[in-house]
Design brief:
The protein is built from nine helices and two strands. Keywords: Signal.
């Protein structure tokens, strides 16, 4: 029997999840959050320009701000997104074509965050990060509206189905609702659902239910 020093609670699970990711197993929000908590995002963060990290922080905060529960920035979603981008999930690591930029003049090899910086600066009428909060919200709202406008946008245009914002927003939302706070505070968490009730009152402030925030598979 081994009476040596035991791993700290949760350490073995984190190592197992990280080993799965390293071995090429399906990457899930659980594995990404385990890597974030283990500090695996350090090198990915250092690879970003400080302005891009600040931009991602601000955009995450605007997308899901604090309310009576912690928002995306408070729960660490930017670190989650940085790792997701570093892993190239859903093609996030591929360069953004010039045609995706307004005016079709994007630089060669542009990243998703390069695109986001360009588009938000353009919509803010200057440096997005230096703009007033109301202007920032207006710029992001315009970007979001274009990305989710009814189909029919020309192929390769900045908006529509191919907008890089859909990818980024999807990562922010997934990161938030698969975080502990997002799944157990913003949502009503019930590990073992109870009896079936055919008539549940739902009001304007009712929260969706959650009983497993680790099962979303990125593929």
């Amino acid at each position: 029997m081994d009476h040596g020093k035991r791993d700290a609670p949760g350490t073995g699970r984190r190592q197992f999840l990280m080993a799965m990711a390293a071995a090429g197993a399906a990457l899930t929000p659980a594995t990404l959050w385990a890597q974030v908590k283990a500090g695996a995002d350090t090198s990915a963060v250092k690879a970003l320009a400080p302005s891009q990290r600040a931009l991602l922080d601000r955009v995450a905060d605007l997308t899901i701000p604090d309310s009576d529960t912690p928002g995306a920035l408070a729960v660490g979603v930017p670190a989650f997104v940085i790792l997701a981008l570093a892993h190239g999930l859903h093609g996030a690591g591929a360069p953004v074509p010039a045609a995706r930029f307004t005016g079709g003049a994007g630089p060669a090899g542009a990243t998703v965050l390069d695109w986001l910086t360009f588009e938000l600066d353009l919509k803010a009428g200057g440096a997005f990060l230096a703009a007033a909060p109301a202007v920032q919200l207006q710029a992001l709202t315009a970007l979001d509206s274009a990305a989710y406008a009814p189909s029919g946008a020309p192929s390769g245009s900045p908006g529509g189905d191919a907008s890089p914002w859909r990818l980024l927003k999807g990562l922010i939302v997934t990161g938030y609702y698969t975080s502990e706070a997002g799944a157990s505070q913003e949502l009503q968490y019930d590990l073992v659902p109870g009896h079936w009730d055919p008539d549940v009152p739902v009001g304007p402030h009712a929260r969706a239910w959650s009983n497993d925030w680790t099962a979303v598979d990125f593929g």
